[in-house]
């Protein structure tokens, strides 16, 4: 469709996942988290699922460093797994293995054979962490009265001075990649897959939500 292909890749990724993004934001667990109604055990269950996912994302990213397109986006300043591991320790959680975690990690592993699809996973998590993640970090600090960044390393990017220009730069690097139309379409499809895999994590957490809700916001 000409209307789609005339968009830049970053515009395609954003508009192609807008409905999925709305669904993610309104999943009961994520909505409760953003409203400050999830307790420490709930937040640990969230981070515990994200840790194996990020370990896989970052392991595959390191291996795909031979791919010129991945090299354009991959940035050590974004790496989150050690921050998540530190936070998990703070919240008293452990890495969690679950069907949704395995499905997500397995899909990321498969992108070793398809670097363009890897980029979709990279975009979905890291641009999310630099966007809604920043909101969640502030909510946690307020609700749990955290000082000195205890427990919220996930949302701090010490090597990134300002988030907004960084995100703009990331989108420009995406748009400068020499991808065919087919590859661009594959990237958009894979962003939808990535959102669905995140939704799988949130569905598991939503099923456990009654045990994680606090009464005060
Ligand atoms: C309560 C949950 C969430 C909130 C409040 C939220 C909020 C936001 C906001 C306000 C933006 C726009 C930032 C900007 O334009 O600079 C954004 C962008 C984004 N979010 Fe979320 N988000 C949430 C959940 C998620 C989840 C679960 C994911 C994926 C796993 C995600 C992925 C993204 C991505 C990839 C972008 C960048 C879109 C683009 O500019 O291309 N978000 N989010």
From TrEMBL:
Compositional bias per record (Polar residues), positions renumbered to this chain: 1-13
Keywords (A to Z) from UniProt: Heme, Iron, Metal-binding
A GO biological process held by the record: response to oxidative stress
Record-listed heme b binding positions: 14, 21, 123, 171
One example GO MF annotation: metal ion binding
Pfam family name, one: Heme_oxygenase
Region (Disordered): 1-21
InterPro entries, A to Z: Haem_Oase, Haem_Oase-like, Haem_Oase-like_multi-hlx
Name of the protein in its database record: Heme oxygenase
CDD domains named among the record's database cross-references: HemeO (cd19165)
Gene3D superfamilies documented for this protein: Heme oxygenase-like (1.20.910.10)
Presence of keyword Signal: no
